[in-house]
Amino acid sequence: MNITEQMQSMGEKAKEAARALSAASPAAKADALVRLADLLLQKEAAITEANSKDLEEARKRGLDGPRMDRLTLTPAIIREMSDACRQVAAMPDPIGAIETQWQRPNGLLVGKMRIPLGVIAMIYESRPNVTVDSGILCLKAGNAVILRGGSEAINSNLALAALVHEALEAAGLPRDAVQVVPTTDREAINTLCKLEQYIDVIIPRGGETLIRKVVELATMPVLKHYEGVCHAYVDSGADLEEALTVVFNSKTHRPGVCNALEGLLVHKDEAQAFLPMVAEKLGGAGVDFRACPRSLPLLGSTATAMSESDPGTEYHALILLVKVVDSMKEAQDYIAAYGSNHTEVICTRDLDRAMRFVREVDASMVAVNASSRFNDGGQLGLGAEIGISTSKLHSYGVMGVKELTTTKFVVFGKGQIRV
Amino acid sequence: MNITEQMQSMGEKAKEAARALSAASPAAKADALVRLADLLLQKEAAITEANSKDLEEARKRGLDGPRMDRLTLTPAIIREMSDACRQVAAMPDPIGAIETQWQRPNGLLVGKMRIPLGVIAMIYESRPNVTVDSGILCLKAGNAVILRGGSEAINSNLALAALVHEALEAAGLPRDAVQVVPTTDREAINTLCKLEQYIDVIIPRGGETLIRKVVELATMPVLKHYEGVCHAYVDSGADLEEALTVVFNSKTHRPGVCNALEGLLVHKDEAQAFLPMVAEKLGGAGVDFRACPRSLPLLGSTATAMSESDPGTEYHALILLVKVVDSMKEAQDYIAAYGSNHTEVICTRDLDRAMRFVREVDASMVAVNASSRFNDGGQLGLGAEIGISTSKLHSYGVMGVKELTTTKFVVFGKGQIRV
């Protein structure tokens, strides 16, 4: 079989598995998840052995430190995967519930029933634990999934897939509900993108180049998870101590992730008082500032003048753009121009402006007096997440189990006809 | 300006209008809709004149009867458009409501706020009333829309757009909230499909060729409205009189539309009794049958043996495929193989099988003992509709105002940070 035939065959099997899975009982799905939790702990040695092969190969090819880190499956990470399986098993099963129902004048009872999306293809980069996390979320939501992880993790991913298959079969569910693409050939991605007859949605997670490529090629819907260029606006009259805490946490808690802060917009009334506080606390923690002309003199020694390329940049590092604005309107215009619809924060005491900011700013999460780092499935209370969608269609923001489902109309009649 | 520049400029204007519209008051949107309702009646002469130009041109080019019909704006159709404006104005405004909210252990209040999608591009065929219907639904949902109707309706569409602009401006809303592509150049569609920086979603309505083309080209999400290959399954023990009424209405009420019945699947226990009833009532109304070997002898003179190409065909005519099945399972397998995820009906008295059919059959509407013709926004109680989506992402089935919106996460804190 060439790659095209191989992907087609996987698509076909996934579609068949999805049909069985959509009718599977909540108990069977939970059973598979608990069995997988156990297997991950029992078969730790086999997982580690497969992972060692990947690590050795990666070392030969000179993978850098952070990527080696992401590729490594430690006993702690294996335990986390196992815990995640148990947590997802314990969550309520979303499928089959009629969530809302109304009666029509002719007596028809019309409702919307929650159903799986069908077949999901996930394309992602090196972390092999994504294989388990994505697999179990898709399974809980009743979807079949085709997983295509980074080529450097191929042995780890196949070892994890073997355990998933064992758990599925022991629970009486089709093993093809979760399939890992067994080849590292890049042609596989191109082929998957064209299999709209089998795949209902494709989810690329990784660098912008990968996402753009999938968007260009895919003939099925794509759920994009782009970068986060997140801002905090400190309003006139804000509680500056509280704002400082929020800004500090947003920037420094984990600077390399998508919900970290990249830009700070400060109302001109507060600049004189607030920016020296920022300089001391964030500057003291090693943050470099890229400052507008008005903020530059207030930010101390780690500040340099911002260049044209700074606005809209995701630094992924301890760097913060700082800009003084004349009004909330100016902050909103700046966010509309340079934000990435990911996470935006306002620090304010003013009710009217808080509500206007929340209403008018276009981002997957808008927060009042809270850290940008809360834009996360666990933190928002959704349990596990598959990512954060920055496109508005289907699901905007954090995607948990429910966001991997859809609804259909169900109608109960007594012989009604249309007149 | 060449076509690409022209479309880019429309995209830019739409994006700006969308931002203003997302913050517009419900009162202003309703005001624009009521003003448009009035203008449509007041300016009937101008609309009819523009429509006459299109009709004359179409006559010269030899457009067929049904297409001439669809192109014609009669006073009755103009009145219907006006009524639709008033109905949509009276509907509750969906935007800005926080529909669900929960508190996290750390006191964060997390909610989901309903927001517009942004900019919608609609590509459709000849009916000029779609221009008004789509425009007002998008407006109500707070979206800017770019409308690209059939080239033969260009004068009608531009005349209607002029009234929409007058109504928008009188209500203090941006006129670019609703734009009609002013050229009939087909290149416009290709360009629109690539403007993902401005357009959030593209909705093609029309023939399969148009939809496939848009799916191939578009880099933004596409909401597809494919054909309907709809079936009714008459179960063992069904109320045959009631089933006959439902099947008759589903097939003959309006055979040319997407929710009309194309296939009848009858349990072998009922074939002897039911098929002669079908032959008499539907055959008597001019329905031709394409029959399986077991049903052929029971269907009378208008039946012929089905060919290989019959299953899965949307006849758009008084033709019905008829097949005897041994079990509900066989009916479900047939529907999974040949249905188009549009509308599927079961006629039964059995609770367990009714619930299993509803749960397991994958279609945008699944009905028990009711006509397939109810898969329609007005009939299901959604008010107006923009179409029936046969793709599962975002919205599956009838799309009304609410389906033209999405939600974002809104978080209210008191200085919470992530620990």
Looking at the structure, the CATH topology of the largest domain in chain A is Aldehyde Dehydrogenase, Chain A, domain 1
Give the helices and strands of chain A as they follow along the chain: HHHHHEEEHEHEHEHEHEHEEEHEHEHEEE
Briefly, what CATH class of the largest domain in chain A? Alpha Beta
By CATH's scheme, which homologous superfamily of the largest domain in chain A applies? Aldehyde Dehydrogenase, Chain A, domain 1
**So what's the overall shape of chain A?**
globular
Pair with the most extensive interface? A-B, 72 and 72 residues
Structural class of chain A: alpha/beta
Corresponding CATH architecture of the largest domain in chain A: 3-Layer(aba) Sandwich
Tell me which oligomeric state these chains represent: homodimer
**Total DSSP helices of chain A:** 14
Give the biggest beta sheet of chain A.
Answer: 7 strands, parallel
Strand fraction of chain A equals: 15-25%
| Rounded Rg of chain A | 24 Å
Mean pLDDT of chain A, to the nearest integer, reads 94
Identify low-pLDDT runs of chain A: none
Helix proportion of residues of chain A, in percent?
A: 40-55%
- First and last CA, distance of chain A: 55 Å
Strand order of the largest sheet of chain A: 10-9-11-8-7-12-13
**Integer count of domains of chain A:** 2
Number of DSSP E strands of chain A: 16
